[in-house]
Design brief:
This protein is an all-alpha fold. It has a domain at about 30-70. The chain is about 90% helix and about 0% strand. The chain has 2 helices and no strands.
């Protein structure tokens, strides 16, 4: 992965974090987890298209760290 792609992936992950926090605050109760799961799946598909296998791996690591921190 070249430098430019790595920087774009970091920006993608930063945007994902902001949107994840927004959705967490927007939805409450049992529906919250359903929306967050769908949001994660959609972003993993997008990472696959934009950044390939390496992008998906980094996104999965980041999502796993989000789940561990909450």
């Amino acid at each position: 992965m070249d430098r430019r792609t790595r920087i774009n992936l970091k920006l993608f992950i930063r945007r994902f974090k902001k949107n994840y926090e927004y959705y967490t605050n927007l939805y409450s109760g049992k529906n919250c987890q359903m929306y967050l799961d769908q949001f994660e799946r959609d972003n993993l598909k997008l990472a696959q298209v934009l950044f390939g296998r390496e992008g998906v791996r980094m996104m999965k690591e980041y999502i796993k760290s989000l789940h561990l921190s909450t």
